[in-house]
Amino acid sequence: MKALRILLSLLLAAMTSIAVGATPTAVDSEVRKVSVDRYAITLRFKGDRSGRSTLHIPGTWASAEHAERSLEGLEIFTPGAKLEGTDDAQLKRVVHRPGAMLQVRYRLRQIEDGEPSVPWRTEYLPLIQPAYFEWIGWTTWVVPTSNQARVHVRVRFSGLPAEWNFASSFGLDREHVEFAGPADLFRASIFIGGDFRLRSRSVRGGRLVTAIRGDWPFRDSELADRVAAIVDGTRDFWRDDDQPDFLVTSTPIRATRRQRSTGSTGLTRSFATWTTPIQSLEELDALFTHEYFYTWNPLGLGTSPEPEALGKWFGEGFTDYYTHLLRLRWHLIDLA
Question: Structure pTM?
Answer without folding.
Answer: 0.89
